[in-house]
Specification:
180 residues; Chromate transporter; membrane
Length: 180
């Protein structure tokens, strides 16, 4: 279990269960708090390991929630994967099922539509916070800042697929790693 005891695993599961209920817009929106907990509070990962884990998981084919499994694996192997994935998926799945049933019965409700519309700015704020945390390791480098700004502008102003932007970022990163 990578040196973690049962109480640590329980704490990991409880923390990710709480994040599950806050993950409006997907689990990635809670990455800043995952980083705070795993890196800052517990010291189980470094900032660079956290950022690399998110980047690798997001670049890999499959569901976006894969990064949660990567965090769990890094912290405590298979037990960590089970704790983080059960935590992040369990409570929100039960809540989504219940709210979905409620929403289908009251689809014309003004209150329900207002609530749904109110989630949009919350989701955008959480995504911006995630972007801020993930750019921390390279934020002081002007080239990286330009790449981030260019990616954001391309996402907002064009209909270019995000996959092309990810590919361009991978090429830029690979070129930066090539010896001189």
């Amino acid at each position: 279990m990578h040196g973690l005891g049962w109480t640590d695993l329980l704490g990991l599961w409880l923390h990710f269960s709480l994040l599950s209920l806050l993950a409006v817009g997907g689990a990635i929106t809670t990455a800043p708090d995952m980083q705070r907990y795993l890196v800052g509070q517990q010291g189980w990962m470094s900032d660079a390991q956290f950022t690399a884990g998110v980047a690798i998981a997001q670049a890999a084919p499959g569901p976006n929630i894969l990064f949660v499994a990567v965090m769990g694996w890094h912290v405590a192997g298979v037990a960590g994967v089970l704790a983080t994935m059960a935590g992040i998926m369990g409570p929100s799945s039960v809540l989504a099922f219940a709210v979905g049933r409620y929403g289908r019965r009251r689809a014309d409700s003004i209150a329900l539509r207002a609530f749904t519309a109110g989630l949009t700015p919350l989701t955008l704020g959480l995504l911006l916070s995630t972007g801020w945390v993930l750019t921390a390791p390279v934020r002081s480098e002007w080239v990286a800042a330009l790449l981030v700004l260019g990616t954001v502008l391309a996402s907002v102003r064009t209909r270019v697929s995000p996959m092309w932007l990810i590919a361009a970022g991978a090429v830029a990163g690979a070129l930066a790693l090539q010896p001189g």
